[in-house]
């Protein structure tokens, strides 16, 4: 007697229509994204459609936002890949209710509404705060060089050593700049991505992209943005040596934040000197005062939080979700795309911390 198997008939037709809600497990990320977006303020996008009376009816912006945010959560930012997934991927099909906009429609929607879409970062951040995921006891600041949409070659030369002045402009994306990549040995045509991360649950609380390689002017600006976003002053901030200057430390202290900013880079495996005792001498320079502060037992412990707070966030963005190169060109659009990437990160934080539903009428603030 031959082995019996469960029925399998690829040509079988369904006798009754299936509900989309039955296609995925009830705790799937796609349903979570749908619930969250249903509560967001999308009036800025909707108003633009209301003012445009020409042409046929567009795709529902609610559906487009759900599909786009889900795509950034799962590392599928390309409009061509999104269009393909809307045909082939069950989660995308459920979110889009079997709508299948082509890649040009997806790209145009993101481009036309990029400012409103980047404003969703603040709305999702407010949801993180209301859910208890943001404490602002300790925040860490980091920058990461991320490649521009298309890397330019330096006039036929390899991107090693110091690029010549004439190699500083990329005609594909003139607002990008050649910057040292991680490790400082190679160079990329890139932007400088900034993020402030709350230690408690690794939620991103402030974000910015610049085309300036130096980070020294960004420390106080990013903490000021954090205060504006959350309405609370962080108690402490840690940052690596790229952010250090005496003025940067003074500016952070003026904001009411206790800074732990390394005055110089330390080699991997470097053994720090014994922790000093007693009060910090008044005659020390600002650099020596910070150096001594970080040598104390408390200083080492607080500065060590930086590595465990912000570095895993960039690791998940680059390694886990595959964001290594921007798709959009120009500083303004790159800032918008970086906000979308960080919004996806915070949505995943909400999802993975068990906050699976959003109550109707919950007070998520508008980004305007």
List keywords for this structure.
368 residues; alpha/beta; 41% helix; 11% strand; elongated; disordered C terminus
**Total number of domains:** 2
Q: Given the C-alpha coordinates, what overall shape results?
A: elongated
The share of residues in helices is 40-55%
Distance between the termini: 71 Å
Query: Stretches where pLDDT falls below 50 for ≥5 residues?
Result: 151-158, 356-368
Tally of extended strands?
6
The overall pLDDT, averaged over residues, is 85
Order of H and E elements: HHHHHHHHEEEEHEHEHHHH
Instruction: Find the structural class using helix and strand composition.
Output: alpha/beta
**What characterizes the major β-sheet?**
6 strands, mixed
Count of alpha/pi helices: 14
Strand content: 5-15%
Short description:
By secondary structure, this protein is α/β, with parallel strands linked by helices.
Describe this structure in words.
The protein is α/β, with parallel strands linked by helices. The chain has two domains: 20-47 and 57-112, no CATH class; 122-352, no CATH class. It has 14 helices and six strands. α3 crosses α14 (331-352) and α4 (79-88) packs across α5. The longest helix has 22 residues, at 331-352. The N and C termini lie far apart (71 Å).
């Amino acid at each position: 007697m031959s082995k019996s198997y469960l029925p399998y008939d690829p040509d079988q037709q369904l006798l009754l229509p299936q509900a989309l809600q039955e296609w995925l497990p009830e705790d799937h990320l796609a349903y979570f994204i749908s619930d969250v977006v249903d509560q967001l303020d999308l009036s800025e996008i909707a108003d633009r459609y209301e003012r445009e009376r020409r042409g046929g009816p567009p795709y529902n912006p609610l559906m487009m936002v759900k599909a786009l945010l889900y795509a950034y959560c799962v590392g599928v930012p390309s409009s061509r890949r999104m269009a393909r997934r809307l045909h082939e991927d069950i989660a995308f099909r459920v979110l889009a209710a079997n709508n299948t906009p082509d890649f040009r429609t997806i790209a145009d929607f993101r481009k036309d509404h990029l400012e409103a879409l980047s404003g969703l970062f603040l709305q999702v951040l407010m949801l993180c705060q209301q859910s208890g995921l943001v404490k602002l006891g300790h925040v860490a600041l980091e920058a990461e060089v991320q490649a521009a949409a298309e890397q330019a070659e330096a006039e036929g030369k390899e991107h090693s050593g110091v690029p010549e002045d004439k190699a500083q402009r990329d005609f594909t994306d003139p607002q990008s700049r050649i910057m040292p990549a991680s490790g400082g040995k190679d160079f990329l045509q890139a932007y400088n991505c900034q993020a402030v991360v709350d230690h408690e649950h690794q939620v991103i609380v402030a974000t910015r992209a610049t085309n300036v390689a130096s980070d020294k002017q960004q420390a106080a600006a990013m903490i000021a943005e954090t205060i504006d976003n959350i309405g609370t002053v962080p108690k402490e901030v840690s940052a690596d040596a790229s952010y250090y200057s005496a003025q940067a430390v003074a500016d952070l202290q003026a904001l009411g934040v206790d800074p732990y900013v390394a005055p110089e880079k330390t080699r991997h495996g470097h053994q720090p000197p014994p922790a000093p005792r007693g009060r910090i001498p008044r005659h020390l320079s600002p650099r020596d005062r910070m150096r001594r502060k970080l040598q104390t037992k408390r200083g080492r412990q607080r500065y060590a939080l930086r590595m465990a707070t912000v570095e895993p966030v960039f690791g998940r963005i680059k390694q886990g979700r595959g964001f290594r190169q921007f798709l959009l060109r120009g500083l303004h659009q790159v800032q918008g795309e970086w906000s979308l990437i960080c919004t996806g990160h915070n949505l995943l934080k909400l999802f993975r911390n068990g906050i699976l539903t959003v109550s109707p009428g919950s007070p998520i603030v508008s980004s305007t």
